[in-house]
Amino acid sequence: MPATLALAAAATALTLVAAELALRAAGYVPHRLRATARMVDARWRMLLDCYPSNPRGYFDVDLRTPAARERYFHLAPHRYDQVAERDPFAVEVQYNSLRFRDVEPSPPPHGVRRVAIVGDSFTEGQGVKEPDTYPRVLEKLLNDGGGAWEVRNCGRRGADFPQLNEAFEDCLKYSPDVVVYAMVLNDADRSPEFQARQSYVNDWILDRGMMLEGKPAPELRALDSRLRALVADRIETWRTGRATARWYHDMYAAPNRLGWERTQGYVREMNRRMLAAGGRFLVASWPLMVHLEGDDPFADVSETIGRFCLGAGIPRHDLRSAFRGRDAESLWVHPVDMHPNEVANRLAAESLAPAIRARAR
To answer: What pLDDT digit, counting tens, does each position of 3-32 carry?
Structure first.
């Protein structure tokens, strides 16, 4: 028996050592240490979304090249080299004076129907090249289907309510015929008590705790066990996942009652303003880019939003059907950025086009 136990212990030890060596050989870095980065100029006219790798070959900016350094160094002179070393692959974003990723406001040309889409980073297109954002793809689809259309991208990253109401006010400067509010589940206003529950580190969209905003990049030291880091990473992912799911459910329930009531008021007012001006309004509900393959863990939240829209007489288009059954990770900008990538943006545009046409009749 002692010999058997010793043999089992030795086999286990060898397995653990082999796993440790394999993780080191593969260059394993825990998810919590894979940082993204952002560089933006003081006027918010140009921004770079930066990533540690380029797994799909999509990112066309490499900050390590002389050409990129010449073009982008002014965005963050004090930390450009740090970002270029850790997160060299990037997507460029350019803004107008309203901090929208679009042209400056001007009157619509005669005979052209103009659509303005109000939203957050999903609409702006974080990590997505401008021609691939769903407002741009939607514009092409609408024009290919007949008639003359313009679609203005009035997405503003980081905007929740009440900031989204400010984006709506700015979108009216385009004199749109149709306004689409592209709703994401983290948009709702929050009471101070509810907001205190979460430090806004991870909302299953982007882990802001991993963004390099001038602080030293976290790293594993040479003697740190990669296997231990892997186990700790899995435990933390599970823990955060449970807390995040509960946070989303509670945002539209009693724990955030006042915040959700204010959100409903904002959306009602958007609809009222557009109807009073002779235009049309539509809520387009985005799902989170997680758990798309099986049962929807946020179905009850979507039903809550749907009941509100139905009761308020506000048209709503649910985008969930465009994504259900798909591999969620294949729709991410990057393994550490769960914003919708160019494929997800195209799917959203294809789903929205007929709904927009129906509203513009």
So the answer is: 676 665 566 656 656 656 665 665 555 555
A 10 A CB-CB count for 355 gives: 18
Residue 253, both tokens: 């329930």
Domain definitions of the chain by residue range: 35-94, 113-190+250-359
| 177-215 burial: b if 16+ Cβ within 10 Å, else e | bbbbbbbbbbbbbbeeebeeebeeebbbbbbeebbbeee
Q: Which CATH class is domain 113-190+250-359?
A: alpha beta
Q: Which two tokens stand for residue 334?
A: 């990057």
Residue ranges with strand state E in 227-324: 280-285, 316-318
CA distance 78 to 74: 9
Q: Crossing angle for the helix pair 226-251 and 299-312, nearest 10 degrees?
A: 30
pTM passes above 0.90? no
Q: Are 230 and 23 in contact (CB under 8 A)?
A: yes
* pLDDT, tens digit (0-9, with 9 covering 90-100), for 81-114: 999 999 999 999 999 999 999 999 999 999 999 9
Query: Mean pLDDT in the chain?
Result: 86
